[in-house]
Amino acid sequence: MEDRNILKVEDLNVFFKVNGGIVRAVENVNFQLKDGESIGIVGESGCGKTTTALAIMGMLPGNGYVDNGRIFFEGEDIINKDEKQWQRYRWNKISMIFQGAMNSLNPVMKIRRQIGEAIRLHNPTITKGEINARVVELFKLVGLDEKRINYYPHEFSGGMKQRVMIAMALACNPKLIIGDEPTTALDLMIQAQIIDLINDLRRKLNMGMIIITHDLSIISEICDRVAVMYAGNIVEIGSIEDIIENYKHPYTEKLIKAFPSIYGDKRMAESIPGAPPNPLSPPKGCRFHPRCHKSIDICKNVLPKYTSFGNRHFAACHVVKGDSLNE
Amino acid sequence: MNLKYFLRKLIQSLITIWIVLTISFILFRAMPGDPVSMFVKSDGMDPQVAKALIKEYGLHLPLHSQYLVYIKEMLLGNFGQSFSFQKPVIEIIAQRLPNTIILALGAQIFSIIFGILLGTIAASNRGKKIDVLLLGSALFIYAIPAFWLGIMLLSYFGVRLSLVPLFGMITPGLNHMSKWEYFKDVSQHLILPAMTFGLAITGRYAMIMRGALLDIFTEDYMITAKAKGFDRKYIIRNHALPNAMLPMVTVIAISLGFVVAGAIQTETVFSWPGIGTLTIKALELRDYPLLQGVFLIISLCVISANFIADIIYMYIDPRIKYE
Amino acid sequence: MSRNRFDVKLRNFRGFLRLFFSNTIGLIGFIMLAFFIIAAFLGPIVYPYDITDVAKGDILAQPSREFPLGTDQLGRDLLGALISGAKISLMVGFMGASISVSIGTIVGLSAGYIGGKVDSILMRLTDGMMVLPVLPLVMVLAALLGTSISNIILVIGLTGWTGTARLVRSQTLSFKERQFIERARCMGANNTYIMIKHILPNVFPVIFANTILVTSSAILRETTLSFLGLGDPLSVSWGQTLNGAFNNGAVSIGAWWYYAPPGVCIILLVLSFTFLGYSFDEILNPKLRER
Question: In whole angstroms, what is the distance from residue B163 CA to residue B155 CA?
């Protein structure tokens, strides 16, 4: 069971040193990803989704550091790699699709070179002809016209740029792809096309995938499992069906109700009262308690532990409790 | 090649040339007590000569006709006769211009290379000691008047150490046997002026390069490059530098006026026989046709260099080429 | 109401001063500038000097007790010349900059606020001026107008406004569409009123920081002009002194006391403005603080 995990994140804490002190951006985050599985991380902006992804890529900004925890990739602890080792592992094993492909592509470099340079870096013996063939193959794979490999980024539309970005992420056959808001900047029709493309590729290539977004509907279309993050903590994690239909945590409940349903009744989407906590001084106890409609006294002082609801579905809440975890 | 962009830049340059011609006309002709009519009316002027001059400059015509005659003459490259040299202005300038171009080109190449290099080093080590040191030196150099820097270098390397010749472009009285000897002599004379001139602009370019790079370091495609597994050196060289060159080309073009100012000062200090010393001479001798010619030629050079920079920009920024 | 407003302004100003004086670079700049201002105003009283004084000492004498910075080719005292130069540099700097900044502000405000044809004409003019090599233009102007100190100030002022105009225009554009401007327009305020009463106060901090930089380039320009022989022969500026040193062979005989001190003073004065400008920029422009 254990060895089939391609990614396992254990008790991860990521902190940032800032002028006013230390921001606890990610705290006590645990999740696992099986081979070929895809997980969505959902939450409001600033909840630590992107920071978690950057920690997995070893790309935290200068003032950020992993305070505690381990990250296993294919059974190997990668957290203490040095920069040279990280460089060999990035893109080759784990690649990333960034939000806003518009700015994530170098404006003065032809696409063929931008994809090709990554292929060459991780396959030093490859010939130029082989690189070109691979770029053409990738273009076909993501549904782009192979004649356009020598174009510059600004000659592609927004949706096409995102396809370019996906082709680039696939360049070295990574085991895992992280998508950071992969469809956010696109209009709805294009969004649907990109989602179809991702699903199609996932079936063909059998890679693991982490999708980071604030939009639950995207996760429900692409992912097998969902982790709901709030203020640096994962408050609930489970299969997509369990989370949407059988959610436990009050924050998950609010989050789901905040999205209008196309099929459901005509009702106003609910908003979540209050604002996310100040990252410099998060509230004691459960971080969601000041905004929670179900909070009780204990929530104010004690951080809740995860309890299990079966089928790898866990939530951390004092009010809604499942079976305690026997560790 | 983007024809529309090319034409737009061409028209802009032509308009600027027209502005320069008009300013020059106003200064030299239209202002009350303008130098040309003053000269014609001056005492001891041979009436025959005065008549010829009046005809040549069209002074008997109304001002707007004078303006048209003037524009026509200028466009034909007829800048008139120098009072003091008794030669056509254009000839004198043609003789001097190459010397200034040698000096300016030498200094420009030096400072572009070092400016880009030092700016890149500063930006890549932002906030560290070397950055503070480079930034501080750049600010310091910016505060030094170019001519004073020249004087100090001259007094130390020329006078005290006698390492280099003190003035001019070639050693007077020396018979240059071969091209190589001539080249050697000019090079020796060129070192200090080029250094003075180059240092003054290097600081400026380094500061701008640093700023451009710091902006680019925050761009998303820099993160993409890092995620691909490249090291910092590769990312700076292959992703940041090509993008930083775009603002640099613009800045180099805009600071050409600054280059001219530097040339005039440097030439004065080192008695370099170029356009700068010619300007000073024309001013001292109150040789107005020459002064006007020099002013127009300098402006024309700067405007053309600007235009060339715009065209280079078109080639290095793919977004313009295919627009 | 007006009293209230004054309080707010005063508090802002105090906050500004507190920020300013906690900024080391700004403080150094301030002390350096204060030194030159004091020297310029008190110097002539403590240490009288008259350019028309005939030679008192030896020709090109080394620094001595009687002449702390030596003498020039006519045997005149050089320390006195240096002190007198401070006043001229500061005067040219401030007055030249006021002219430049005023023109630049008017052009920038009108172009940015009125927009349309006015904008494109003014900006083409500004671009044209920007491309023009300023030093030859200034030299020609100075030669034609005559080299009195007021003409030099005028010429420097008239040619140094392009940067300010571009800056003020871009700032004006960013304020133009704000709500309080719309509101003033709806209430029937005319363009001039809105520009002066509503936009100018908002753009002012940027203009202020810009003025400092314009001042230092005006000072450098006067020095250069005087060195090239286009200065006012009757006012002893640093550039004028350097012109005298250069043309009278001080360099070839190594009379460093003649040509070194004025240059050092120019550098220090310009640096003091650079430092002040840098720290004001940092205070007024929060985006820069991350740099």
Answer: 11
Extract the tokens encoding B115: 């400016």
Distance CA C157, CA C101 (A): 8
Question: What is the β-pairing status of strands A5-18 and A21-34?
Answer: antiparallel
Q: What DSSP state is assigned to residue A260? A: P
Which residue ranges make up each domain of chain C?
29-46+78-290
> What is the edge-to-edge ordering of all strands in the sheet holding A208-213?
A94-97, A176-180, A208-213, A38-42, A225-230, A233-239, A314-316, A306-308, A323-324
A59 and B226: CB-CB below 8 Å? yes
Provide the sign of the torsion angle of the four alpha carbons C33, C272, C223, B162, taken in this order: positive
Q: Quick check: A316 and A298 in contact, CB under 8 A? A: no
DSSP codes, C149-163: HHHHHHHHHHHS-HH
The single-letter DSSP state of residue C204 is H
Q: Which residues contact C94 (CB under 8 A, 6 or more apart)?
A: C215
Nearest alpha-carbon partner for C112 in C194, C229, C51? C194
Q: b vs e for C116-137, b when ≥16 Cβ sit within 10 Å of the residue's Cβ?
A: eeebeebbebbbbbbbbbbbbb
Residue owning tokens 């969601």: A288
Which of the pair, B303 or B321, is modelled with greater confidence? B303
Going from the C-alpha of C164 to that of each of B213, C108, C174, C247, the distances in angstroms are 25, 7, 16, 36
Phi-psi region of A95 (alpha: psi -120 to 50; beta: other; left: phi over 0): beta
Q: Which residues of A touch B221 (CB under 8 A)?
A: 103-107
Reported as half-sphere exposure (CB side, CA atoms, 13 A), residue A30 has a value of 13
Q: What is the DSSP string of B177-235?
A: -SHHHHHHHHHHHHHHHHHHHHHHHHHHHHHHHHHHHHHHHTSHHHHHHHHTT--HHHH
Q: Which residue has the higher pLDDT, B63 or C95?
A: C95
CA distance A211 to A223: 8
- CB-CB contact of B205 with B112 (8 Å): yes
Q: How far is CA B253 from its chain centroid?
A: 10
Please indicate whether, in this complex, the C-beta atoms of B322 and A155 are within 8 angstroms of each other. Answer: yes
CATH number for region B89-316: 1.10.3720.10
pLDDT tens per residue across span A112-162:
999 999 999 999 999 999 999 999 999 999 999 999 999 998 889 888 998
Assign a CATH topology to domain C29-46+78-290.
MetI-like fold (1.10.3720)
Residues whose CB is less than 8 angstroms from the CB of residue A193 and which lie 6 or more positions away in sequence, other chains included: A159
Region for residue A274 given its phi and psi (left: phi exceeds 0; alpha: psi -120 to 50; beta: otherwise): left
The amino acid that residue B238 corresponds to is N
B208 near C CB under 8 A: no
* Probe site for chain B from A104, A123, A131 (most B CB atoms < 10 A): A104
Question: What 3-state DSSP class applies to A209?
Answer: strand
Which residue in C36, C144, C155, C230 has the most chain B C-beta atoms within 10 A of its own C-beta, making it the best mutation to test that interface? C144
**Residues near C188 by beta carbon (within 8 Å), at least 6 away in sequence:** none
Q: Please tell me what DSSP assigns to residue B175.
A: -
Mean pLDDT, to the nearest integer, of C137-151?
83
Provide the pLDDT confidence category of residue B46 given band limits of 50, 70 and 90.
confident
Q: Which of these, A282, A273, A274, A272, lies nearest to A232 by C-alpha position? A: A282
C-alpha atoms less than 13 angstroms from C-alpha of C280 in its C-beta half-sphere: 19
Structural domain boundaries in chain B: 33-78, 89-316
Contacts of B60 (CB under 8 A, 6+ apart): B54
Write the pLDDT tens digit of every residue in C162-186: 989 988 998 888 877 777 777 777 7
Nearest to B148 among C124, C143, C242 (CB): C242
**pLDDT band, very low/low/confident/very high, at A110 (cuts 50, 70, 90):** very high
